[in-house]
Amino acid sequence: MRESKLLILALVLVALLGPGEIPARGASAPDQMVGIHSSRVMSQSLPWMAQEAGLFKKYNLDFNLVFISSSSIVTAALLGGDAEMTVTGGVGNVNAYVRGSTDVVFIGAIKNVMTQTIVAGGNIKRPEDLKGKRIGVSRIGGNSHYFTVQALRKYNMDPNRDVSFMQTGGDPETFAALMSGSLEVANLTPPTDALAISRGYHYVIYGPDLKIPYAATAFVTKRSVIAKRPQVVGNFMRAMAETAKIMHTDREFVYKVLGKYLRITDRSVLDSAYNAEIKALEPRLAIKTEALQAILDEVAQTDPRAKKVKPQELIDSRYLDEMDKSGFMDQLWGKKKEL
User: Fold this and answer.
1) Which segments in the chain show pLDDT lower than 50?
2) Quick check: 139 and 66 in contact, CB under 8 A?
3) Percentage of residues in the chain having pLDDT higher than 90
4) Cα separation of 113 and 135, whole Å?
5) What is the DSSP letter of 120?
6) β-pairing, 117-120 with 61-67?
7) 3-class DSSP state of 7
8) What are phi and psi of 282, to 5 degrees?
9) What is the C-alpha to C-alpha distance for residues 280 and 208, in angstroms, rounded to an integer?
10) What is the pLDDT of residue 175?
11) End residue of a domain, out of 158, 188, 210
């Protein structure tokens, strides 16, 4: 009798789920989550590394990462419900918040300063040589454009008058345009900038030296997503915390993943990029208020509403706080956090 009931139950499951979809006894199906990243660069490679290291599987996540160039478009996709998590620059999200989309929220960061560079060839060697030139950026309004504007201002140039911009769609596309001669000047991010240097180009403005505050790479989701799936978002952040540890301590694994996804295998290029970029990456995924304030200050120049927004309003630190208070971070790093 008992066996007959089990057989009937099995047949019902087949009818409802279809062949091959019956969950294993005692196992739960992984939680699905769609994420978007806005640039194919080292600082946004953590989801790739988590996938290759098996960390999504460890935290019972089926994470699907999609590439969409430009943080503003990524933000629109997030708000539209096309994704639940984004790994992107801050300007699109800050703009959306200022305009009333207060559902967006920063829950952690990978990079709080800008590390882009301006690269060129020939006789373009000093910042003042950029006057009258066309500079390739991924997107107008994105990270690369923002950095170029800020960098030019530091050298007393007007980005609206002294240069023009060409949108390419992404770092690899900017590099390709530079190599083909379609561009004289390019904004590039590690490791693509190191690749350009290896091909005979040179730095005109080296971004890491400027230390421009900016939420360059952050984890951004929606408050409504956290309310509906707090545990899933928490598991994602734990996976990212473990991946950040790998990023800072296992150079060979980082090179292997970057080689696979970016098709860059030149050891000297990877060394140069890693050595420059790792100094700017947050080991404990801290999101810094000054990085968001810098964006608010820029947005306020065209939208006065930004002056009324405090950077703390944009942050939900519950997952970072929990990982600190529970000892997860200390256990991960094998030491107490330095004060």
Assistant:
1) 1-26, 337-339
2) no
3) 83
4) 21
5) E
6) unpaired
7) helix
8) -80, 115
9) 8
10) 95
11) 210
Contact 115, 92 (CB under 8 A): no
3-state DSSP helix/strand/coil percent for the chain, to nearest 5?
Answer: 50, 20, 30
Residue 29 has what DSSP assignment? P
Helix axes 230-249, 318-325, angle to 10 degrees: 70
The beta strand positions in 49-116, using DSSP E, are: 61-67, 85-88, 104-113
What is d(CA 142, CA 295) in angstroms, rounded to the nearest whole number?
A: 12
In a domain, 25, yes or no: no
3-state secondary structure of 109: strand
> Which domain covers residue 132, as residue numbers?
117-210
Round to whole Å and give the CA distance between 316 and 168.
33
300 vs 297: CA distance, rounded Å:
5
pTM attached to this predicted model: 0.83
Rounded to whole angstroms, how far apart are CA atoms 58 and 136? Answer: 40
Q: Which two tokens stand for residue 249?
A: 């301590």
Looking at the structure of the chain, the number of domains it has is: 2
Residue that finishes a domain, picked among 178, 210, 242: 210
